UniProtKB/TrEMBL annotation:
GO terms for biological process: carbohydrate derivative metabolic process; carbohydrate metabolic process. Residues 23-160 form the SIS domain. SUPFAM superfamilies: SIS domain. It holds the Pfam family bact-PGI_C. The keyword Zinc does not apply. GO terms for molecular function: carbohydrate derivative binding; glucose-6-phosphate isomerase activity; mannose-6-phosphate isomerase activity. This is Bifunctional phosphoglucose/phosphomannose isomerase. Belongs to the PGI/PMI family.
């Protein structure tokens, strides 16, 4: 594959999401569940973070994302356990799958095949196959589509369903602003990128930072407000050279807490006055779900053009491949 393939994958996010939403309409018996746990790693895990934040204002169920080999002690037969491994062979996630089976959790498994599919079939667990040939991080649109369909059946909130339906319409005619992405990528070249946003949307900042890591081979850091205003804002003082090496991006999303919006603008001004280069991205649609999707697609595109500026292949993840090989030795 070439770097052009990543660009086409990024621009396929809308169609992947729409397809994922229509893949499987079967009901899952979730009567009596008390919590939701999502087990995954890397590009497969970020969907859990995003889903958690989409559900946060409306869901009565505690929701935890597990990026490890072990499930929390409270996981039981009253847990809705989502197992997500795009390859189907992620060792941490497989261990969680086995653990969830022992605890008789109500399980939904997602993968493109692999051991996840085999274990699901063997144990008569609901499995949804993601029929894509791409890196896990590029399958986010389809994964979110699948999961949001299931969540509309679990969280019977009309406004939430309406937001998703409206998002589907907007995604069918989505415009990618390549010109602006190219412009910003040129500015970011050679800088460490710090990304900050409201804690209610921290998954968007996390996704962007990780896309810069994997696609752009470019170091990035993320944090969220108001927490960063209680510690990190002070740390951005020394060493002196960081003012010339770090570029700071703030993400403003319409549905963020008004106090955090005010904090963001004040924090941005303080850091700019201190000598940092800063930029604000605003996502101001009335639809909260669409704003999250829009921000992901906008920033994914930026990560691609920064890869172009860095003259790297956004498809390759050589150090991860080396790491996996050595772990198996």
């Amino acid at each position: 594959m070439t770097d052009k393939d990543m660009l086409s994958l990024i621009k396929s996010f809308p169609s992947f999401f729409i397809e994922g939403f229509s893949i499987d309409k079967d009901l899952i018996d979730l009567k009596g569940i008390e919590n939701i746990v999502y087990a995954g790693m890397g590009g497969s895990a970020i969907a859990g973070d995003i889903l958690k934040e989409m559900l946060y204002p409306i869901s009565k169920y505690p929701f935890e994302v597990v990026r490890n080999y072990e499930l929390p002690d409270y996981v039981s037969g009253k847990t809705f356990l989502i197992i997500s491994s795009f390859s189907g062979n992620t060792e941490e996630t497989l261990k969680c799958f086995e653990d969830g089976l022992k605890r008789k959790s109500k399980i939904l498994a997602l993968s493109s095949g692999g051991d996840v599919e085999k274990i699901a079939k063997k144990n008569h667990i609901k499995h949804i196959k993601l029929k894509l040939d791409c890196p896990p991080r590029a399958a986010l649109g389809m994964t979110l589509g699948v999961l949001l369909k299931k969540m509309t059946l679990l969280v019977k909130e009309k406004n939430f369903s309406d937001q998703i339906e409206e998002s589907l319409l907007k995604l069918s005619d989505y415009y990618f602003d390549d010109l602006n992405a190219k412009k910003v990528a040129k500015i970011l070249k050679g800088k460490i990128v710090n990304v900050y946003t409201d804690s209610a949307f921290s998954s968007v900042a996390k996704r962007f930072a990780n896309q810069l890591h994997e696609n752009s081979k470019h170091f990035s850091h993320f944090n969220f407000l108001p927490e960063m205003d209680h510690n990190e804002i002070v740390g951005l003082e020394k060493p002196d050279f960081i003012k010339t090496k770090i570029f700071i991006i703030f993400l403003l999303i319409k549905q963020m807490d008004e106090k955090n919006r005010k904090r963001t603008l004040i924090t941005e001004r303080i850091l700019k006055d201190f000598g940092f280069e800063t930029m604000i991205f605003e996502f101001e649609d009335d639809n909260r779900v669409f704003n999250i999707l829009d921000s992901i697609m906008t920033l994914d595109l930026l990560s691609y053009y920064l890869a172009v500026e860095n003259r790297v292949d956004p498809m390759k993840i050589e150090r991860i491949d080396i790491l996996k090989k050595r772990i198996k030795e």
